């Protein structure tokens, strides 16, 4: 995708380092950064400079290629990168693509590059399949950021929207703000604005009533891990959206590449849910007019917080999975069909 006329991906190989768009600074500042050690790659993922399931997989792949170039030990580099975030299985897909080639830095880098290209191609295919679900004038609700920042290019949930807009269809997107880190407000709204797509940011608690009032034709979200039975883990707040869609007969689709499917976990109950620091809920982070980081406490000093970063949407609430192998049912049979294509 282009930013101010220049083509970018969310992360890239930058001559012996891994370059990335620092997503913590958006939408106020567009800045790139570079990780020159395996620890810096891991810190960028843990600290949310780089986020979104397919993008962290590509970041981890380049991180392992960097560790190979630096002559590090495979097991410890793999363990360090693998421990950054627990929910998105794409992280392991990226590491597993590079690990067999670790002995040769050139081959490791080649494998990371192929993984990167494959994720971008998958995102494009998701867009082409998903675009068929979108009619001219559609009003679409989404949650978190499942756009190009989260998937290297195009996106998962946003890819069909970009493809529909490219084909000349008019769409309106309701962007759930996505407390506590506000990926919707900060990142999805920024992406859509950059691409001239009509959108409104809505408070997380508002979406269910928009659905009930008949203002939403379709919900599309991304996923961080999909179990063998079709249950999907995604950003906290996705499950209530699916419940509201189901209760009001509105289609609810989950868009994800095959690298997000984990056939080794039977159901969503087996997916590890990341618990993030309570400060993300207790404080609001922002930037001052001078661009300096600012933090304000919202809750009483004596209150503590619970901060699960993801929830599970059961397969029965999902109308379909938009994958790079086509649109399949969220069921064991649908998952088998997608993986065998
Ligand atoms: O915690 P984040 O911002 O990494 O969570 C991201 C999401 O939940 C996205 O919806 C998901 O990774 C799909 S990305 C294409």
Task: Write a structural description.
With about 350 residues, the protein is of the alpha/beta class. The chain has 2 domains: about 1-125, Four Helix Bundle (Hemerythrin (Met), subunit A); about 125-340, Rossmann fold (3-Layer(aba) Sandwich), CATH 3.40.50.10470. The chain has helices at about 40-45, 55-70, 75-80, 90-100, 105-130, 160-165, 185-195, 205-210, 240-245, 280, 330-340; strands spanning about 1-5, 5, 10-15, 20, 30-35, 140, 170-175, 200, 220, 225, 230-235, 250-255, 260, 285, 295, 310-315, 320-325, 325-330. The strands form 5 sheets. The protein has a 7-stranded mixed sheet with strand order 8-7-6-9-12-17-18, sandwiched between helices. The chain is globular. About 50% of the residues are buried. It binds 5-S-methyl-1-O-phosphono-5-thio-D-ribulose. 5-S-methyl-1-O-phosphono-5-thio-D-ribulose (MRU) binds next to helix 2 and strand 11. 5-S-methyl-1-O-phosphono-5-thio-D-ribulose (MRU) binds near residues 54, 88, 151, 156 and 183.
């Amino acid at each position: 995708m282009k930013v101010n006329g220049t083509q970018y991906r969310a992360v890239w190989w930058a001559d012996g380092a891994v370059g990335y768009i620092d997503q913590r600074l958006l939408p106020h500042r567009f800045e790139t950064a570079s990780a020159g050690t395996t620890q810096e790659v891991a810190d960028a993922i843990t600290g949310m400079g780089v986020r979104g399931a397919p993008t962290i997989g590509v970041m981890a792949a380049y991180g392992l290629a960097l560790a190979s170039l630096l002559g590090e030990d495979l097991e410890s580099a793999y363990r360090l990168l693998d421990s950054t975030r627990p929910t998105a299985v794409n992280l392991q897909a990226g590491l597993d693509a590079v690990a067999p080639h670790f002995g040769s830095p050139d081959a490791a880098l080649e494998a990371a590059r192929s993984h990167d290209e494959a994720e971008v191609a998958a995102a494009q295919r998701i867009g082409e399949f998903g675009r068929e679900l979108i009619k001219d004038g559609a009003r679409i609700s989404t949650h978190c950021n499942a756009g190009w920042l989260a998937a290297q290019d195009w996106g998962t949930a946003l890819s069909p929207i970009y493809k529909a807009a490219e084909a000349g269809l008019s769409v309106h997107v309701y962007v759930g703000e996505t407390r506590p880190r506000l990926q919707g407000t900060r990142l999805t709204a920024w992406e859509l604005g950059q691409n001239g797509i009509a959108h409104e940011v809505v408070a997380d608690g508002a979406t269910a009533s928009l659905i009930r009032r008949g203002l939403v034709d379709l919900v599309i979200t991304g996923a961080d891990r999909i179990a063998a039975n079709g249950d999907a883990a995604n950003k906290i707040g996705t499950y209530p959206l699916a419940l509201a869609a189901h209760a009001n007969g509105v289609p609810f689709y989950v868009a994800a590449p095959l690298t997000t499917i984990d056939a080794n976990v039977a159901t969503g109950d087996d997916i590890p849910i990341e618990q993030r620091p309570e400060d993300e809920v207790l404080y609001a982070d922002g930037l001052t007019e001078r661009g300096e980081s600012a933090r304000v406490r919202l809750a009483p000093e004596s209150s503590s917080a619970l901060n699960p970063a993801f929830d599970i949407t059961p397969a029965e609430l999902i109308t379909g999975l938009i994958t790079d192998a086509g649109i399949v049912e969220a069921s064991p049979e649908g998952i088998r069909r997608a993986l065998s294509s």
